[in-house]
Design goal:
Layout lengths: L8 H23 L4 H12 L3 E5 L6 H12 L3 E5 L7 H4 E6 L4 E6 L6 E5 L6 H4 L3 H6 L1 E4 L2 E4 L5 E6 L12 H4 L2 E5 L6 H9 L3 H6 L7 H12 L5 H14 L10 H17 L7 H12 L21 H8 L5
Parallel strand pairs: 1-8, 1-9, 2-5, 5-8
Antiparallel strand pairs: 3-4, 6-7
Helix pairs in contact: 1-3, 2-12, 10-12, 12-13, 13-14
Length: 325
């Protein structure tokens, strides 16, 4: 008998899952050029079970990234284009009277999907924006006193334009806190822009994508994320960062939900990187994406920034907190 231990089903599943994640990142990076870190963070956000907010100028590839991620994850998908005249019922659904049954019947809206793309979410009114709060937190919708469970897993990927543009409404803090991460793509490099000019249309490339994961694989990855080990010394570093956010008079510090989100995001980033233990570098990689929008950091488009872009709140905090005590 061989002394080599046999692989358990769980280890085989883990290896297959890691291969699928690598394949997904490779394919997505052929669609969204020159943004490997943003792509990796976006996938980490979803595998952490969180919602993702993409904010940038129009035409920077936010919707392309969201659609590409949706197709490669192999989940049921709906896209809603938010407008200023949209009502909550346009997203959630409504009760319609059925004369044959002499009763009202609930007709579900586009939110009843596994992955909802809320495109240009801040072009709708605050009332419509708030319709997503219960769905994002409780994974359910309540209409006319009746609660309806959403498909599992359920994610929201929302895009928004800068507040400096006309016709947009700022997202309330309560909704910003529902997004695990907030990411910006920014302008492409000169080489990436040349590839865009000489290459195929992004829409055609999106049509050629085939799913790499499916519902079962996504749920397996989510289980794997929760199993990534976080040592006490790493938790110490995380808590020092959190304490620093609460020591300022300029903004409110991270809430307990924000702290849990930071840990889960670091675990997901570690898992996507193929590791089984969180390092301080994993926390640093996700810290700005998880915390800046919670601390009130305003997005400033690159074209209005002169010279070196200023540090964000999260970047200043990381510069002031040492990794080791």
């Amino acid at each position: 008998m061989s002394d080599t231990p046999l692989s358990t089903p769980s280890s085989i599943d883990y290896q297959n899952n890691q291969q699928q994640i690598t394949q997904l990142l490779t394919q997505l990076n052929t669609i969204v050029l020159d943004k490997p870190q943003v792509v990796k963070l976006a996938l980490s956000c979803v595998l952490a079970g969180g919602h993702l907010l993409l904010q940038d100028l129009p035409g920077m590839g936010k919707t392309t990234l969201a659609q590409g991620l949706a197709q490669l994850l192999g989940l049921s998908f709906s896209r809603v284009q938010f407008t200023n005249d949209m009502l909550p019922a346009d997203i959630l659904g409504m009760s319609i009277y059925d004369p044959a049954k002499l009763a009202f019947e609930f007709r579900s809206g586009p939110i009843f999907t596994q992955l909802l793309l809320a495109d240009e979410i801040n072009r709708s009114s605050p009332k419509t924006q708030s319709a997503l709060l219960e769905a994002m937190e409780e994974r359910q919708v309540t209409q006319d006193g009746q609660s309806y469970r959403l498909p599992q897993p359920f994610f929201v990927i929302a895009t928004q334009n800068p507040l400096q543009q006309a016709g947009v409404y700022p997202l309330p803090e309560s909704q910003l806190d529902r997004f695990l991460m907030c990411l910006s793509l920014g302008y492409p490099s000169q080489a990436a822009e040349r590839a865009l000019l000489q290459g195929q249309d992004r829409r055609k490339l999106l049509q050629g994508l085939t799913a790499v994961l499916d519902t079962k694989a996504v749920q397996l990855a989510q289980q794997g994320v929760h199993q990534v080990y976080v040592a006490d010394v790493v938790l110490d570093y995380l808590q020092r960062l959190v304490a620093k956010t609460r020591a300022s008079q300029e903004y409110h510090g991270l809430s307990p939900r924000g702290v849990l989100s930071l840990q889960r995001a670091a675990q997901a980033y570690s898992y996507v990187s193929g590791h089984t233990e969180v390092t301080p570098e994993d926390i640093q990689a996700v810290f700005a994406a998880v915390t800046d929008h919670r601390l009130g950091q305003q997005f400033v488009p690159a074209h209005v920034v002169s010279g070196q872009a200023p540090q964000t709140i999260a970047q200043r905090i990381m510069a002031e907190v040492t990794v080791l005590v």
